Amino acid sequence: MIASLTQDLAPVRAFSARDGAALLSVAGVLTVVGVLLVEGLWHGVVDGGASAFFWFTNGLLGLLGLASAGAVIAMASPRVGSRSDAPLWLGAMLAILPIVAVLSLVRQQHGVEVITNDMYGIHCLSASLFATTLMFASLTVWLRRGAPVSVNAAGWLTGLASGALGTLAYGISCSMDSVSHLGVWHVAPVVIASLAGRLIVPPLIRW
Amino acid sequence: MIADEATLARLMVAGQNGDKSAYNVLLSEAGLWLERYFRRRVPPHQLDDLVQDVMLALHNKRATYDQTRPFLPWLAAIARYRWVDHLRKVYKHESDLLEDNDAIEESDEEAIAARVSLERLFVHLPQKQAEVIELVKIEGHSIREAAERTGQTESLVKVNIHRGLKKLSALVEKAE
Questions:
Q1: Measuring CA to CA, which residue among A203, A180, A195 is closest to residue A121?
Q2: What is the DSSP letter of B140?
Q3: What is the structure's pLDDT at A202?
Q4: Which residues of A touch B67 (CB under 8 A)?
Q5: Are residues B173 and A2, on separate chains, in Cβ contact within 8 Å?
Q6: In A, which residues are within 8 Å of B116 by CB distance?
Q7: Are A203 and A154 in contact (CB under 8 A)?
Q8: Partner residue facing B55 (CB), from A1, A9, A80
């Protein structure tokens, strides 16, 4: 067996996390360009009109997305001793946002209706999910080229990374910067994408 | 004696660059390392198949070795992954005894070997799960025999094996 494997040996390009980052960056740039072409940039982002909660939410999404994407990229080259706890803590931090949104509305009259009657909510949810697809696909392709050994975790993290970065990319076009809107409709896509990642990715990357 | 970490890493890099003689040495050394690695956790008649399975995985996934990192934790992660996969497939009644525990040779690599060993995976399992996986999947006893020995019901043995294997697969990279 050793002789036949040696006989078949051909040079290979060694794994580098930079290649994975480059692949994801291309997908991210294409997504942002697509959002700008279809939805346009919200002027509040550049003229200082956006609320502090807008920056807080999108900052958390960015950190969560980058931490999760970094973990996914590293997972293509396995090793005993590898840990990816950062996305877990950042995800827990993001989970505070919908809680804050609900708590801020619960004492108001018709508070729940503020969320359910948000006429832009479903659009933000569906557009954010659409914006995740390219990055979701690029991370899945990267994992398929690699040798992930924690396939379920890789699935969760792929959904988490693409969900957070996709929602962030779409977020630059959204002019709704209230606590209730961002805390619910800009967090839900991350949850949905994570579940999709857990269901879709493992069968595709198992080897 | 098996080559040390630095030598194995150097051979792997040469193998990635297409150096056939270095790769041949690497595969021989990796084969010896894997045999020792699995000996306590795989019945003797399954050992060769599992080692060959991992060697094939090493060959097919050789591009995923990151040259900036140590070699053995990479090989151990692949070995653990294939081993858990192997345990999932083993359902037949097997009565072969495992070979005696070979003490790990005294060397500088001892610390690395202990850190990446299969034993480290079992430490993280609840005792009831580790016990039945050991009896059924490694020593080859039937579900009924495992139930009699552990005092668990047959259905509980099955559930504990299922949950234990699921947990093992989640621990492949983490347990050290």
A1: A180
A2: -
A3: 96
A4: 14
A5: no
A6: 80-81
A7: no
A8: A1
Q: Which of residues 51-110 of B touch A (CB under 8 A)?
A: 52, 55-57, 59, 61-67, 69-70, 73-74, 76-78, 80-81
Is B20 in CB contact (< 8 Å) with chain A? yes
Structure tokens at B33: 């390392």
Length reported for chain A: 207
- Pick A115 or B170 by higher pLDDT: B170
Q: Is there a contact between B173 and A80 if contact means CB atoms under 8 Å apart?
A: yes
Mean pLDDT of chain A, nearest integer: 91
Please say if the pLDDT value at position B94 is more than 60: no
Per DSSP, the residues of A90-134 read HHHHHHHHHHHHHHHHHTSTTHHHHHHT-TTHHHHHHHHHHHHHH
The residues spanned by each domain of chain B are 5-171
Q: Above 0.90 for ipTM, yes or no?
A: no
The pTM for the full model equals: 0.84
Provide the H-helix boundaries in chain B: 5-16, 20-38, 44-60, 72-89, 110-116, 119-123, 127-132, 143-150, 154-171
Q: Which residue of A has its CA nearest to B17?
A: A11
